Amino acid sequence: MKYLFKNLKQYWKSVVLLAVLLLIQGFCEMSMPQYTQNIIDVGIQNKGITHILPAKVTAGEFERAQVFMDEVQKQEWREAYSEKDGVYELQDLSEETLDGLDKSLLTPVVLAYQLGHMTEDSFRDMMKAQIQSTLDMQKDLPDFARKAAEAQMKALDGMSAEEIADALGMDITTFEAKDEDGNMAVYVDVRPAMQSLLESGQMSEDQTAGMKKQISETVEAIGDRTMRAMGIQYAADAAEAAGVDVDRQQKDYLWQSGGRMILMALIMAIAAVAVSFVASRVGSFIGRDLRRKVFGNVISYSNAEMDKFQTSSLITRATNDVQQVQMVTTMLLRMVLYAPVLGIWGVFKVWQSHANMSWIIILGIAVIVGMIMTLMFFAMPKFKIMQKMVDRLNGVSREILTGLMVVRAFGREKTEEKRFDDANSDLMRTQLFTNRVMTFMMPSMMFIMSGLGVLITWVAAHRVDSGVLEVGAMTSFITYSMIIISSFMILTAMSIILPRAGVAAERINEVVTTKSSILEPEEPQVPEEQKGLVEFDHVNFRYPGAEEDALQGITFAAEPGKTTAIIGSTGSGKSTLVNLIPRFYDVTGGSIRMDGVDIRQMDLRQLRDEIGFVPQKGTLFSGTIASNIRFGRPDAPDFEVERAARIAQADDFIGEKEEGYSSHISQGGSNVSGGQKQRLSIARAIAKRPKVLVFDDSFSALDMKTDAKLREVLAEEEKDATRIIVAQRVSTILNADQILVIDEGKIVGTGTHTELLDSCEVYRQIASSQLSAKELEETRQAGKDAASRHAAGKDAASGHAAGKEDIHHAE
Predict the structure, then answer these.
(1) Most exposed of 24, 194, 458, 608 (fewest Cβ within 10 Å)?
(2) Can you give the pLDDT at residue 807?
(3) Is 505:3 a contact under the CB 8 Å cutoff?
(4) What single string gives the DSSP state of each residue in 350-417?
């Protein structure tokens, strides 16, 4: 997992920017439920009024509101208002002061509201209770008086509020207003009577305190939230009576709150778009960097590392694995960083709401954790082996496609199809299993979230009914709960996805951190004279992991201007030997020198610039014929390209093409024949103008005539170069200056064709298997004649030189 986060180090500035954007997005998202709650509770239910003190109040109401206030509360009430034209206006007070007054004056204000908005039934019941209280207090009251009072109590049942007031001599006010069901009903304001009784002394302080206590207990039983709502209703009625346009005030509040919500939504949308943009950009950059690192490291691998990592696995790591890391990195930055912000913020908001329903969220998280752990138990092992199955499928596909002609030639289509289907079906079954697990997860999560919503609604409904919770608070709690659960779902879902990406990141890191066994020297040495002399000095080589040496005690020198041929049976080590020259592998014993310098002490690029290597299997790249010939020397002029093609005997088929050297070459050279591909590979090495030319069985696809012509022209045109030829055909190396016979990793014979026929049994067997006795004798005689001419040429050259020296002395 650490490799996922390791990739983010160089993009820390973008990560910090993302964190800031996510905080902005989180703040806006967490503000939305609060605005919804305010719109419902304050804007709709409370008409846009946030405090129980009216904005304006008439002089009469100002006095009547103080009926149940003590001296301290009366003082606070009076100091909060200033009188203007017979109307009292609320002073400009701070929110903190208003909150304090709400707490202090809530009970007397609600009592005043209750007495000022009593239904006829409530008024009748209160009067009965008052008469009964008087009878209870006056134990010595005469029987006739007691019976008269009881008769009066019974008579109240058939009277209206006004009739009751007339009968009892009370000063009340009646008015019509809509009840809770929206129907018109008669309400009674008994505060004038209460005020008259208090002023006249007809109601004692004990009676007042008793009535206040009785009403307070009744009111407080309905809950704090309901009490506050009643206080705000009082403020709305009182303000409206004083001329305040309450409807206008409500609309203004709704517009303001709605406008803030829209603004927050816009900011949140902008932040979300910015987060997606930055996260996607960082993910893309990381994908680019990983592909660059993987390719850059793989391109420097020696054959040993290429043998360790199969080509199909390297392709999977550079494509599928990088894509996994890129996708998960983007998700990590967009969601995994955001989820904790929402979760922690949501918990804080829920705690702030004092809804006392946190146990529901804990229950939901526990259920989700249990389900996720169960799914991870079944799915995690499959995730770990899925990437290996992708490697296997890619390997089988690549092997079949590259060897398609062989498959068809041997009629193995059905067998190879079955092999592919087996690999494909194994991957499909694994993916089906994991996908089914993942598809089961989301409906389960949605079911849990919906169940939590129902449970919260059911519990909150009881709390709303008891007056301890408002409807808006319930909706905001549900929203916060869903946010918390969603954030936890994101984290748990990512806990399943992250391990697979972690495996991909580890596979990529394995490629990136595996360094080539071919090391550059710290202080490269440069040959004094670059001629192309290649010397093997007691060279041993063993493949990594092998138990025996592939080459043993190889010692020879390939001189400039001469052809050194290497021949031997299949698997004898010929290709291994020439692969050591450009350091595709490093020797495990002895040394190889180029112009007197150990090739391990030379700069690798300089070494390979001196070598023109033609591999056993010709490889071409998509482009043109000219671009392929210029592959080792991009700045080669046209005449050099044409010269190389002429030497390689490729000019004839190039000339037949309509576009000549600009003719298109498909990937891998699939649109040219094997012989043409090999000739272009040879031309590519020649165009480089190297000091050393290495041909690893590069003439095998050429016909005998083309082979002979190519070698003849090559010897004439590249007479100064060191030519090393690996061949299977004796005819290819007949005229070589030096032939090395390799058998089981050892040199068993060295010399010319004629010499080896006499001295090397292995060579004689190879030659006899390819040439008739007559051809052998002819080639033996031709070799002797060539040797004689060569010796005579040397003597003549020596005599000519001696004559010149004599003339010089004579002069």
Answers:
(1) 458
(2) 35
(3) yes
(4) HHHHT-S-HHHHHHHHHHHHHHHHHHHHHHHHHHHHHHHHHHHHHHHHHHHHHTHHHHHHTT-HHHHH
Taking residue 511's Cβ as centre, other Cβ atoms within 10 Å add up to 22
Q: Which two tokens stand for residue 598?
A: 């150990």
Q: What are phi and psi of 560, to 5 degrees?
A: -65, 145
Do residues 203 and 197 lie in contact, with contact meaning Cβ atoms separated by under 8 Å? Answer: yes
pLDDT of residue 806: 43
- Which pLDDT score, from 0 to 100, does residue 599 have? 93
The strand pairing partners of 623, in sequence order, are: 665
Its sign, for the CA torsion 398, 402, 403, 408, is positive
Distance of alpha carbon 430 from the chain centroid = 22
pLDDT along the chain (811 residues), means of 10: 74 89 88 84 84 89 83 89 88 87 86 79 79 75 76 79 76 73 77 70 64 60 69 86 87 90 93 92 90 86 78 82 86 82 80 72 79 74 75 82 78 86 88 77 78 82 71 78 79 72 82 83 88 93 88 93 91 91 91 93 91 88 91 90 91 89 87 87 91 89 83 87 90 88 92 89 88 78 64 50 41 37
SS3 call for 632 = coil
Round to whole Å and give the CA distance between 304 and 588. 13
Q: What is the pLDDT of residue 1?
A: 57
Helices 95-116 and 205-220: crossing angle in degrees, nearest 10, is 110
Cα separation, 788 vs 786, in Å, equals 5
Q: Which residues pair with 185 in a beta bridge?
A: 177
Radius of gyration over every alpha carbon of the chain, rounded to an integer in angstroms:
50
Q: Are 574 and 732 in contact (CB under 8 A)?
A: no
CA angle 187, 190, 195 (to 5 degrees): 160
Please check whether residue 252 is in contact with residue 48, taking contact to mean a CB–CB distance below 8 angstroms: yes
Q: How many Å apart are CA 740 and CA 698, to the nearest integer? A: 17
H or E segment to which residue 690 belongs: none
DSSP state of 11: G
Whether the CB-CB separation of 738 and 746 falls below 8 Å is answered with no
Residue 261: CA atoms inside 13 Å, Cβ hemisphere, count? 14
Task: Tokens 């392929």: give the residue.
Answer: 628
DSSP codes joined into one string, 799-810: HHHHHHHHHHHH
Cα–Cα nearest to 343, from 471, 494, 501, 499: 494
Write the single-letter amino acid at 795: D
Q: Determine how many CB atoms are found less than 10 A away from the CB of residue 326.
A: 24
Report the sign of the C-alpha dihedral through residues 620, 622, 623, 624, in that order.
Answer: positive
- What is d(CA 235, CA 229) in angstroms, rounded to the nearest whole number? 10
Q: Which residues contact 693 (CB under 8 A, 6 or more apart)?
A: 611, 612, 614, 685, 686, 714, 718, 721, 722, 723, 724
Residues with Cβ < 8 Å from 633, sequence gap 6 or more? 640, 687, 688, 689
Task: Write the DSSP assignment of 567-622 as a string of letters.
Answer: EESTTSSHHHHHHTTTTSS--SEEEEEETTEEGGGS-HHHHHHTEEEE-SS----S
CB-hemisphere CA count at 13 Å for 36? 17
Residue 469 in contact with residue 463, Cβ under 8 Å? yes
| HSE (side-chain half, CA atoms, 13 Å) at 413 | 4
Give me the half-sphere count of Cα atoms (radius 13 Å) on the Cβ side of residue 713: 16
Tally of CB atoms within 10 A around 89: 17
Instruction: Order the strands of the 589-594 sheet from edge to edge.
Output: 551-558, 534-541, 589-594, 597-598
Instruction: Kindly give, in sequence order, each residue whose CB lies less than 8 Å from that of residue 319, ignoring residues fewer than 6 positions away.
Output: none
What Cα–Cα distance (Å) separates residue 466 from each residue in 47, 55, 224, 454, 563? 22, 29, 9, 19, 105
If one counts every other C-beta atom within 10 angstroms of the C-beta of residue 11, the result is: 20
